[in-house]
Structure formats: C-alpha cells, structure tokens
Give the backbone structure.
Amino acid sequence: MSADQTQPDTPHAVPTAPPTAPTAPHSHSDTNAYHGPLEWFARVDAPEHGQGLRFACTSCGNCCSGPPGYVLVSDAECHALARRLGLTTQAFIDQHTQVVERGRSLKEVPGPRGFDCIFLDRQRVSGKAICGVYESRPGQCRTWPFWGHTLRTPETWAAAGRSCPGINTGAIVPLHQVRVLRDSVPMP
Ligand code: SF4
C-alpha cells in the first residue's frame, strides 16, 4: 500500500500535516466514557454498535496504486521479504526498495492508476489486483484500513471508504482486533 502525501482521502494517503481535530465528541456521554473521544467506533451508537468495523478486501488494488507514495519497510520486513524471494537481504533492498523522506519504502512501477507497488500483480487473477507477497507484506499493508488517521472520525473512515470498496462490507472485524491493528504500526 503506497502512502501518498497529497491525497488524504485515499488508502495510500498519509497527510503531511496532523489531521484536523475530530468533531466535538460527546464527552459527557456514558457510551463515550470508557473508550475516549476518538474511538467513535466503540460507541454503542456507532454503526456496528461498538462491536467493531466491517471490512472485506475486494482485491481491487486501489490501496496499492495511485499517485506516487510509499510503503515503509523495516529491516525485519526486508529480511522476511528477501527470504520469501530467495534473495539476500541486501539484494532485496537494492532491487526492491528506495529511500524516501520517511524511511525505506518498497519501489513503485508505472501502472494504470499512476504507480503500482512493485509487488502488485494485475496478471494472476483476471480483473483483480493481488499482492504478490501477501503473506510477507509489510505492516503498513497488513494494518490497512485500520490506521490511526482513517479511524480518527466517522468522516475520515467514510473518506477512506470512497476509494476502498472493502470498507463497511463483509464481516465485522472485532473491536479488539481493530485496536491491535491500529496500534501495531505507527501510522499517522
Ligand atoms: S478493497 Fe480496499 S484493501 Fe482491498 S485492495 Fe481494494 S482498496 Fe485495497
């Protein structure tokens, strides 16, 4: 999933400035008392009644393509991806990553929507865009769409859903799992 710095309403978007403050929380509400004002999705009056959020990937590839962006990879993730591809870690870094402002990123290649993640496979399944290293994908990809800034308000979640058709579909991802995904990778 590439992270574009200019289009904060897309899955591959990371705003360069801090997201705007959420709309005024109902801080006096009992349902808000235990989860903090930012966890709107934990409230009993949230769409899934505080049980979690719906998400089921459709393999459209939108989150792995678009304007120039980045997919940050840690040293451990480079090592895991290198092993998967039968490369040395250094060879993987040299062939598949580049240094960007925020760190080391997977490279991108030109694609039908601008740029694709270098591992996005549009050939394997007709009409689908599949991650070619899915089981070893970096945390930035593994945790989408449960990033801090997409979860910040109902509006940011809805905005993410305009480019990610998997949002608000499928089974409910339980609240505890949403929190684990949100907190496991320091996405803005
Ligand atoms: S449904 Fe969402 S997560 Fe799945 S490929 Fe499309 S944009 Fe990415």
User: Anything to note?
Assistant: The first strand starts at residue 52 and ends at 55. Residues 11, 57-63, 144, 164-166 surround iron/sulfur cluster (CB under 6 Å). Strands lie at 52-55, 65-66, 97-100, 103-106, 108-111, 114-117, 120-121, 130-131, 167-174. Residues 37-184 form one domain.
